[in-house]
Structure formats: C-alpha cells, structure tokens
Amino acid sequence: MTFLETRIPPPLVVLASGALAWGVTTLTPALSLNFPGQAALGLIIAALGVAIAAAGIIAFQKARTTVSPIDPAAATALVDSGIYARTRNPMYLGMAVMLLGWTVILGHPAGLLGLAVFVAYIDRFQIRPEERALQALFGDTFTAYRARVRRWI
Asked: What's the start-to-end Cα distance of the chain, in Å?
C-alpha cells in the first residue's frame, strides 16, 4: 500500500476523520453524553490543538524549510528545537487534539473512532515515509533526534 504514502494531504485526512466521527455518532444518538460546558470544553481542546499545530508550522517557517507533507524529501533543515524538542510531529499531534475537541463537542464516545482512524492513517502513511526521507537526508543527526524525542508525545 505504498501508493498511499504521503499522497493525501493531512488536512484532508483530518476532515475525513472528523466526518467519520460525526457520521458514527449520528447512527446511535441514544449513546450521546451531554454535560454543562461540553461545547466550551471541546472548543478549548480544539484551540489547544490549533496552537500545537501552529507552533510546528512557525518553527518550520523560521527554519525556512517546507511545511508541505507531500514531498518530505524536499526538507532543507531538521527542526529539533521549540516544540520539536517535545514531539517530532506537532502538526499531526495538533490535528489529533483538534479531533479530540471535536469528539467532546459531539458528545459521543464513538466519535473517538475518527481520532483512532486519523492517528493510525497518519502514523502509517505519512509519518513513517517522512521519517525514512529524513533519515536519508540527515542521517546520524536524525537518528539522534529520533532517539531523544518521541514520535507523538
């Protein structure tokens, strides 16, 4: 299934995963969980996800390297400071946190299916190919970075 690797832009994957979460929750409305402040909490969590992803984008822009995940071999710098000292994939982590916020807003445990699909897809078809490209580009420097910083959190 290498034909899927880095082909679908991650923002589309997050939208599809969010739509999946919504679709699954509409099938079993009786299982919905509602509580006071639910929408506000979901929005706060989603905003945290936006901030995490934005920190990753800003770090890439400061390093003057590509933000595009479609061609990981086009990277011109290995960013390992700022948020990248805590997670190797803050943009994807941010998207996952946004989906978690969406799940809270939906108020349905089955919404977590969308989050799980997103994480599984991104890990297999986006992150792994990116890491192979970074290993080829940056060698021992990337190996050391990978040993000291976790993939997600």
From this structure: 27
Q: Which amino acid is at 36?
A: P
**How many angstroms separate the CA atoms of 87 and 93, rounded?**
8
Question: Do 72 and 61 contact (CB within 8 A), yes or no?
Answer: no
Query: What is the Cα–Cα distance from 21 to 111, expressed in whole angstroms?
Result: 4
Distance CA 153, CA 77 (A): 22
> Kind and range of the H or E element at 11?
helix 10-27
Task: Please write the tens of the pLDDT for every residue from 79-114.
Answer: 999 999 999 999 999 999 999 999 999 999 999 999
